[in-house]
Amino acid sequence: MASVLAGKMGLNSLLRKQSRNFNVRICTMESDMEFSCEVKWKGKDLFDLVCRTLGLRETWFFGLRYNIKDTVAWLKMDKKVLDQEVPKEEPITFNFLAKFYPENAEEELVQDITQHLFFLQVKKKILEEEVHCPPEASVLLASYAVHAKYGDYDSSVHKPGFLAQEELLPKRVINLYQMTAEMWEERITACYAEHRGRTRDEAEMEYLKIAQDLDMYGVNYFLIRNKKGTDLLLGVDALGLHIYEPDNRLTPKCSFPWNEIRNISYSDKEFTIKPLDKKTNVFKFNSSRLRVNKLILQLCIGNHDLFMRRRWVDSLEVQQMKAQAREERARKQVERQRLQREKQLREEAERARDELERRLIQLQDEAHMANEALLRSEQTADLLAEKAQIAEEEAKLLAQKAAEAETEMQRIKVTAIRSQEERRLMEQKMLEAEILALKMAEESERRAKEAEQLKQDLQEAKESERRAKNKLLEITSRTVHTSPRLPPDLSLSRENLSFDFKDTDMKRLSMEIEKEKVEYMEKSKHLQEQLNELKTEIESLKLKERETPLDIIHNQNTEHGTSKQSNFKKLTLQSTKSRVAFFEEL
């Protein structure tokens, strides 16, 4: 079966070489591209085509990587594509990735597209936990990633929940704390709001400046064995070669900068490194496969070349690129200032418009109130006119009544004379009535006295009846047997129960302030304050039992004031000879 499969693969390879073209798929960090390539094309032809398509000029950082069996390989530039161990099926898939990392991203990365590709790749490695990142740095990096995507923070637009679908933190960090998604978003948004005024490119660069100081940033790890057969890890990065213990990828046991290495070579699975000091013995190690040795050698040569290149005068091409980049940044700065002025003027115009609208609404309200007042005054005037008319009618009616009264008075005067005789007779009758009333008053007084006497008699009768009843009750009560006494009351007393609750003594580990900061962190005091503040905020919510071995190692390094740069300087202060001896004794 295996021979049949190998025969088919060989046939496919033969048919591909006989045809004029073959198809490839290039996967970048943002999108995929497909190209039709000629059979005679070398790796450089395909690589240059991809770089031209992306508009990329800083090509020396990148490469085309493909999967081969249980490892990866990089496409060689000087060999034909089809003559290399690339996948046999079409389209052939390559990943366009950063192969080498800069020592200082801000100084070395010139083009915006270069910076953006690095930003995407580093962010992916951190989120997938290929690069260990402490929690407080993860939150700060997430805030810059959000700024790079959404621009300046705007509370009216970026409302709670706008990051719900975003992947911003490593799962390890999320599981390490008793914090909800809303709590993480609140802390990320608080940092994000402080980045106001930065462009997308500036936010991405800030992200890279923080990420480049992580211990695992830009390091390629390979499993090796020394002469004693001890399993170790070889780390290859922009600064040199580092030897790690298998369970600690953060702190190297020894390091060899590129400027101390004279020659690197391999024979089969054995790898040989010759130090610059000829008096020092070479040191050797073994890898698992020959293919891994090839990959190590490629990375060593490329990183060494870039290490030396950084310390030389820039080439004419790089000088031109940097000049263009400076001009472009200056142009963007002018454009940004112009846009900022326009934005400011627009905001002032909007504020003036809002003020005019507010004033217009105020005047409309005042006009409405004036109209209502005018309407009320008109209604009042109508009512007063109606009252005046009624008063005039009443005056006429009173005048008429006055005339009638005058007439009636004249009539009364006429009749008064006639009634004098009648009044005399009435006075006589009145006198007789007064005499009769006096008699009746005397009779009434006599009757009242009789009624008062009757009331007193009735009261005495009631008192006699009450005394008789009491006497009867007294007599009756003597015949009744005396009832037994009740037993004495039982007195119950309650005992007060008291429970003393003592606070559980909680011992918290106090983190010492890091004694030594990385070079960039020393320049950026505000950044370190942010990291410490974030760390303090979330430290009380940490679940210690969920810490990974790398988290524990990172905390120990932090307690001892050990950083990536300080450890590298400390290791390189030792003589090369002693480091080689130390490596062989591991």
Summed up, what is this model?
This protein is an alpha+beta fold and about 575 residues long. The protein has helices at about 1-20, 45-55, 105-110, 110-125, 135-150, 170-175, 180-195, 200-210, 290-310, 315-420, 420-475, 520-525, 525-540, 550-560, 565-570, 575-585, and strands at about 20-25, 30-40, 60-70, 70-75, 90-100, 220-225, 230-235, 240-245, 255, 260-265, 270-275, 285. The relative contact order is 0.08.
Secondary-structure blueprint of this entry?
Layout lengths: L1 H17 L2 E7 L4 E7 L4 H12 L7 E7 L2 E4 L17 E7 L6 H4 L3 H16 L7 H16 L20 H5 L5 H13 L6 H12 L8 E6 L5 E6 L3 E5 L9 E4 L3 E7 L2 E6 L7 E5 L2 H21 L5 H103 L1 H58 L41 H5 L1 H15 L9 H11 L4 H9 L3 H10 L1
Straight-line distance between termini: 45 Å
Radius of gyration: 53 Å
Side by side, the strands of the main sheet go 9-8-7-6-12-11-10
Fraction of residues in H or I helices: 55-70%
GO molecular function, one term: actin binding
Domain FERM: 22-311
Organism: Takifugu bimaculatus
InterPro entries: Band_41_domain, ERM, ERM_C_dom, ERM_FERM_C, ERM_helical, Ez/rad/moesin-like, FERM/acyl-CoA-bd_prot_sf, FERM_2
